[in-house]
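Hi there, hope your week has been kind to you so far. Please have a think about how the structure follows from the sequence. I've dropped the whole record in just underneath, so have a look:

_____
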Amino acid sequence: MQPQSPAARHLRLPIQAAFLLAAVAVVVGLGSAGAAAASGRGTMLVVKEAQNETLGRAVLINKKGHTLYSLSVEKNGKFICTGKCLSLWHPLVVPAGTKPTGPVKLGTVKRPDGRFQVTYRGRPLYSFGGDTKAGDANGEGIMDVGTWHAASPPAKAQSQPTPSPMPPYGY
């Protein structure tokens, strides 16, 4: 074994320290990412808003641009759409522990099959199998045990033009 020069020993120490710091950073990063994944605490954009020409109003849509609906009799964890109903109406679901986000306040509710369905105003959201392209609203008004309606965000207040002030003298 050859003796190393002081310069070589000096160079080796910073390289080893850099590798050690990099390894620690990777371990810490993986640990925090793993903890976040294990806790399921994340957010996911699942709902957008779009003007629906057929309905003449803004509606909530999924990532594919399909209209989202709710059933009038489903609220606060009460599910009517189960079994065969799910062949036409597709629940908007997220992984357990995920907070859904969008242009309105959203929540989740646990379905009878254990999945977590996105809710708006306490009602579970679904897409309709009869809507084949973005902008379709073929599920609007369908009646069975309740009525299906496209989920709509609150109407935005129209800004009124400010009236011009009257001149102080009526000339």
